[in-house]
Write the C-alpha cells for this entry.
Amino acid sequence: MCGIVGLFAKTRSVEDSLGKLLSDMLVIMSDRGPDSAGVAVYKKSNGNKIKVTLQSEEPSDGFPKLNSYLSKQKNLKTQLKINSTHAVLELSEKNSNLIINDLKKHFPKIRLMSTGSNIEIYKEVGAPESVVERFNIRKMRGSHGIGHTRMATESAVTTLGAHPFSTGKDQCLVHNGSLSNHNTLRRELQKKNISFETENDTEVAASYLTNKMSTGADLGQALDLALKDLDGFYTFVVGTEKGFGVLRDPIACKPAVLAETDQYVAFGSEYRALASLPYIEKAKVWEPEPATVYFWEHNK
C-alpha cells in the first residue's frame, strides 16, 4: 500500500502555489506509506539549460568538492544549487553528458536523481512531512508535479528505492502496486543496454516506458503498450516535460481518484488527498476507469 498524488496547473495562481498544494496532498497520504517519500516538481530552467538533480549521503563534504571541481572547468559555465541532501546542477545541454560521465568517474557517492529541462526530484527515507520540510517543497512553484509515499514490499528502504523513479529526460514514474513479471522485463531491457540501480519493480516500469518513448511512442502510446506487457496490479502516474498521465491495470484494485477544474487537474490515491484543494467543491471528480489512459499536457 502506497500513496500517490499529482497536480497539473492550468493557471498562474496554481503554478505559484504548486509546492504547497502538492505537499499538503502528500502529507495527508502519510499513513499509506511511512518508509520513504518523494516529489517531482516541473519548473522551467533558465534559457537552454539542462537541470541535473543530484543526491549525496554526505552533502557537507560531497557537494563542496563537486562545486570546487566544477569551478575549475571554466568552459562549462555551471551553477550548483544545494538543497539539503540534494542539489540541482544547471548547465548547457551540450555539456550534460560530459558532466554526468565525470560524476560517475570522480564522484561515485553522488547519485543522479533526474535530468531534463524542467524536472527536479527530491526524495529520501522518511515520512512525507519530513521530506517536505527537509527540501522546503512548500515554497516551490511549477507547472505540474507528482508525489509518492512508500510502503516497501519487494525491495529495500533506501533513497534510491524511493519514488519517483526517473529513467529518461524529464520523465518520472510513481507507482502503487506490484508487478509480477518485472524480473523478466528487467532482463529484456538489460539486453538493450539499459542498466538498473535497484531491485524495485517501479524502476523497471519507468525504464520500460522510457524505452518505448525513446523509440517514437508518445506518453499515451507507451502507456497503452504497458497494458499488454506489464503483469500485476498497479496504478501509475507518469510525469513528462509537458504534463502527466494516469493508468490503472485492467482489474484496477488499487485506489485512485481524479478531479478537474478550470484551475487544475489533481490525482490522489484517495479523495481525502484532494479535499483541501481550492474550488474542489466545483470540480468534476471521478474514479479513473481500468485499462484506460488519461493524460494532460501543456501546449508549450
